[in-house]
Amino acid sequence: MRKLPDASVPRVTATGSFDCVNASLRETFTSLWMTWRRRRAKPTSLASLGMAIGNESRFARLSAMPNNPVLVVHGGAWAMPDDMVEAHINGVRNALAAGWRVLERGGTALDAVEESVVIMEDDETFDAGRGSFLNRDGKVQLDALIMDGGTLRAGGVGCVERVRNPVRAARKILSESPHVYFVAEGAERFAEEHGLELCRNEDLVIPREVERLREYQAKTPTSRAEGAREMGHPSGSAQDGNDLFAPAVHDAAISHDTVGAVALDREGNIAAATSTGGTLNKAPGRLGDSSLIGCGCYADNLSAAVSTTGWGEPIMKLVLAKWTADRIVAGNLPEWAAQEAMNYLKQRLKGHGGIIVLNAQGQVGIAHNTPRMAWALKTVQKEDAGIERGQ
Ligand code: ASP
User: Fold this and answer.
1) Are residues 273 and 371 in the same domain?
2) Looking at ligand 1, which atom is closest to the CA of residue 78?
3) What is the mean pLDDT of each run of 10 residues along the chain (391 residues)?
């Protein structure tokens, strides 16, 4: 059997971290801490008491203290060339403005992340919605997830081809279905039955992406059939733990323009959403990390709201969003946890990507192990956006 590279997970040595104590002590502490948090939590609305009528509040809601809102968005982590920086910064700023409008009038974190992500799905700069990468058959196939940290309700769609805004379909699932996840035609049917107009797949395809796929496939040996040979490993064996079914990890030209948002609302609830067209030339039916709970997206008031981007196969193997949220519940700050998640991704599976993290106290973490990641952040005091952070 081949040995994977060093599997050790980075250990925390920073002051204030609880990862360095032994497991049982940590468990005891965590449960004490959570009990304290629960007692401290003051429900501030009918919804937070779980008493309101309506589907979304049938579930017990656990909310923190009233808070000043916070919103963070990202638009993908990769070696973004200089001439694409402006479009990405504008895109994330527009998304921030849309989500902030919701939060400033007292709307929910869930609505805010949905609105932010819709803006980026509609912006052809990003690999989400119209303008997404094409799969091997030249089609757009979209994945999205949205999650509410107050109730742990979530909605996800995978491999949809006729939904212009997959995050809207995901939200319908969260709000109007007892289920959590729908794929392909079933997801499209659900979306249509719940009031979303379907489009043609061609409506999501743009010339830039047709050309990009043509160039990519022309460069790729015709022998790129399924499996190991597809990735240039004739032996079929994993090399250095790299995944055989994802684009070459060292190919800096491969962009990752997945979009995501995390928000904290006035009620103290957090939420997260992630939406993607996946990876260029992906096999039809391939699902990445973005729409899988705990992989590309996660939200729990007790830990954090998280959205990731990057090479999906390693991210999903590490269940990276939940891994990061667990670091927060263990007492670490989002900033540290975001950076550690990127270290873990790189050290454990040679993965690359980016992450945004927000806890219910409004503390933020933004990190990437790629050269650049488009991000934007807004609080009542400040607004900022950039393409480099926490490296
Ligand atoms: N994580 C996405 C996927 O693998 C791609 C990305 O983030 O750009 O589907």
Assistant:
1) yes
2) 8
3) 33 29 42 46 32 34 67 94 95 98 98 98 97 97 98 98 98 98 98 98 97 92 45 37 43 76 97 97 96 98 97 96 98 98 96 96 96 96 90 52
